[in-house]
Amino acid sequence: MSIVLGANQYGKAEVRLVRVLRHGGRHELCDLNVTVTLAGDLAATHLTGDNAQVLPTDSQKNTVYAFARSHGVDQIEDFALLLARHFVTAQPAISRARVRIEEYGWQRLGPHSFQRSGGEVRTATATCVDSEFDADSDADAGLVEVEAGLTGLVLLNSTDSEFTGYVKDPYTTLPETTDRILATAVDARWRYQDTGVDWAGSYAGARAALVDAFVGTYSLSLQQTLYAMGHRVLAERPEITEVRLSLPNRHHLLVDLAPFGLENPGEVFVATDRPYGLIEATISRAGDGVG
Amino acid sequence: MSIVLGANQYGKAEVRLVRVLRHGGRHELCDLNVTVTLAGDLAATHLTGDNAQVLPTDSQKNTVYAFARSHGVDQIEDFALLLARHFVTAQPAISRARVRIEEYGWQRLGPHSFQRSGGEVRTATATCVDSEFDADSDADAGLVEVEAGLTGLVLLNSTDSEFTGYVKDPYTTLPETTDRILATAVDARWRYQDTGVDWAGSYAGARAALVDAFVGTYSLSLQQTLYAMGHRVLAERPEITEVRLSLPNRHHLLVDLAPFGLENPGEVFVATDRPYGLIEATISRAGDGVG
Amino acid sequence: MSIVLGANQYGKAEVRLVRVLRHGGRHELCDLNVTVTLAGDLAATHLTGDNAQVLPTDSQKNTVYAFARSHGVDQIEDFALLLARHFVTAQPAISRARVRIEEYGWQRLGPHSFQRSGGEVRTATATCVDSEFDADSDADAGLVEVEAGLTGLVLLNSTDSEFTGYVKDPYTTLPETTDRILATAVDARWRYQDTGVDWAGSYAGARAALVDAFVGTYSLSLQQTLYAMGHRVLAERPEITEVRLSLPNRHHLLVDLAPFGLENPGEVFVATDRPYGLIEATISRAGDGVG
Amino acid sequence: MSIVLGANQYGKAEVRLVRVLRHGGRHELCDLNVTVTLAGDLAATHLTGDNAQVLPTDSQKNTVYAFARSHGVDQIEDFALLLARHFVTAQPAISRARVRIEEYGWQRLGPHSFQRSGGEVRTATATCVDSEFDADSDADAGLVEVEAGLTGLVLLNSTDSEFTGYVKDPYTTLPETTDRILATAVDARWRYQDTGVDWAGSYAGARAALVDAFVGTYSLSLQQTLYAMGHRVLAERPEITEVRLSLPNRHHLLVDLAPFGLENPGEVFVATDRPYGLIEATISRAGDGVG
């Protein structure tokens, strides 16, 4: 039985780019972490070390910086698309380019002074597939797909969360509760139907939908809250076709203060690190192919 | 257009389990991080908050600890299989259970004294799918798949690595080199054809194959080294059907000492953190369905 | 020459405490990480393993939770003082207790809904020394010292920063610049003269002084900015007697785009991780003993 | 009351240096993280931004790389001394230089192939104080002090550890135990009396003493184990004058399996992250000034 090379890809990860846009004395700041991943006709370098089809990852990095200067950076979805299209168009051997960007938020303190906003990160991923085999499509652009999302948005409801009525197997000791803390760090990705989108408005709207649904849902399970969050995004943002959510359940355990003669009516909790529940789901529009 | 729940799963992540096995005064130590992920008929909890089919993640955690006591832990592949089979068998609503285990190595210092071995981690993932729809199969066991692997194995060759003959596009400034440092942190996963395997022997053999191929390959690209590593595993371990490798290129840049009147003939390097190349591929046996 | 036990201390580190204060349906959230360190007559446990003077660190942890319930938590300086005083008072063997608290910020989203504010952390450390040897002092309270501060406040000026006129030794290749990005993650601690302080107001004032001085200083060196920040705190907050600042210089390097036919007039930068400059100083009032 | 600049220092942190020494085809690898800290007549840059006395941290970084080439790197204590002496000697304004080096271990796999050894890190710190005010001393060398140590050495005894006889206050719920797991991550620093030392031999000896004492001590408290470790170093290594140890107590809690009808005779434990006990002490030779 012979041994063969299967799916493969390569690229440059975590290119840290900060761009300052100067409108006279008033500056705009853009702080990105860009990861490029390329796939295509790359068997030779694996099998024989022939690099004739390999664009160095160092060149990919240079391209990120050069394009930031020559094209500017406004919405990260557009910058990811620009880069992904470039790699599949400019490199004959590359049939798929994926560019993932993380954007770190900064809050303005002055005309050219800023403060990092914290742990929340906006993300976008553009994937461009070479369409050489389809003569009717736009061969320069190829087929594209855009995902956006966020990570590190930590949310907590200090009440309006129950967990009851679950399976009791021989290993179940968890007491049912009708009032607990529900906390999570939202990791969300949503997929667009096409690329003609007001990215900034769509991001703000999707983010607000996630937050509003978390805040407004009386939760019977983190699954229910998750579904409500994804449903809200799709209900409010017609340009989004699918939402994937990964929500760790950051358990807050009520401390037993009885040994010290104290009641603890939902007041003092220990925030735990590990283990944690992890709830994941995709919510999509009916009729779409859901992965 | 209606909104629907798509693929979903849940479970308990990072259950930290340490087991001490006492043979008189001589102890064996087993240090694990166990993550359980369940999928199945879980729509109700998402859509209405009805938890009647939800086994709490706390119960999953308890099961890990109880099984460690009642069944013991020898090879992590077997412990992962045991747990995965339990969840699909014992929980009618659960049609797929995946148990991923990380094992941290300890080196013996005495009869009951140990030292952590370092950053390298052995991994195993067992997935058990309920086979209720197939009357001919073993309904108790279901369909199972076992993957093993390792992370955090940091390897470096201080020579016998070139990078030449690559694409020069307008953004290429990287000089060709016939002598560079090649360093990576191996992240490898390999898939087994069935479950009747000498797990310890197979792990040791696969790990040795990875290391030997890295050490013994005169590298023209990290892709070539990667392929050699995967190929070696498959060539030497017939029980393994596929290997996936993810290799960051931990760049070591030669420092320019000319401003200080010094040559630097491959002696002084700066080890960089970001950005880094990332090379990923699957190597498999021809005829297998490769994802 | 004999071997002796010198300075020693012990305690419980990183007690994670979340407290929910309920005013009807409107909740307040307090999220802390508490570290207790005790010193005193503890030679026996070191020398012979006699624990008769050792309060278990587990009991220290319990005390944190019990006091959060029985005394509440408002300002972290007061909670740290309460705990520190308790340990020196209640434990005859303990002559010095230090309680360090980190407070994580949460922004309100609703009556009982919150979002983590990000990387910035408010800190306080109270140290209480048993005054048994000084009959004239308040024997119950002992001598106390309070420090407050913050970490993780990331600030950036995209201009108004120069670095010129420095020493040029044979290893200097850095070009002088009259326009660079200046960025840092502020780690500040300030010391109070006594404990009768409006902690919340003082914290807000000191934080604002740090930020305002960073924003408003035309910087000739990060040292100059650091001094301006510490000076501003002391100038505006008479209750503070000393400020210590530790400021990493988060270098942003202008990318050389000339190989691509592009100028780069202060627009595209690479944000680097390592190495980084680190500038540290104490600013205090004249006449104070400064460590 | 005027505001004054107190103690201050600056330098370059985390200069990552990898050096390859080639003996024909057989290579030696040295992997370091170097941090330089300088103090002296630096008031001007703080007060007015006059940098005439400031050696850029970039030049400090260059010096590390250039010295690695021109002087080589053998023992990190010597390399730290070399650098520290250089900065106080070559820079008139600098009266104290401190160079801290972390060395990452690599295990040989072949003539020029290596594997990272894991989490354990060898450390050394050399401090050189300018002796210009003392005409009788060696003005070129100044006063020097060398510390060495290690971090990240994780040790565990699975028995021979008790914790009993401690204080029971109203917040004590911890049950006494005569058999527990004792685990820690050793952070040790030791100070030398002078600089004419076989650094490699002394390091190996001190490390072995720490490990042997941990393994061989029947522990009644982690304090007792700590003291035994420090005492052993001083007893066996006359060139070392003081040892400082910081030992987190990595708690392993016996899991209560009674709800599942199982006993748990010291077999199944949960390894916890936070909170943790933290035990710190200095052990020194009588007659020395101990900080």
Automatic annotation (TrEMBL), chains A, B, C, D:
Keywords: Oxidoreductase, Purine metabolism. It is an enzyme of class 1 (oxidoreductase). It comes from the Bacteria. SUPFAM superfamilies: Tetrahydrobiopterin biosynthesis enzymes-like (SSF55620). Coiled coil: none annotated. Transmembrane segments: none annotated. One of its GO terms (biological process) is purine nucleobase metabolic process. Pathway: Purine metabolism; urate degradation; (S)-allantoin from urate: step 1/3. The active site is at K12, T57, H251. It catalyses: urate + O2 + H2O = 5-hydroxyisourate + H2O2. Urate binds at T57, D58, F163, R180, Q223, N249. Pfam families: Uricase. Its EC number is 1.7.3.3. O2 binds at T57, N249. 5-hydroxyisourate binds at T57, F163, R180, Q223, N249. GO terms for molecular function: urate oxidase activity. Catalyzes the oxidation of uric acid to 5-hydroxyisourate, which is further processed to form (S)-allantoin. Belongs to the uricase family. This is Uricase.
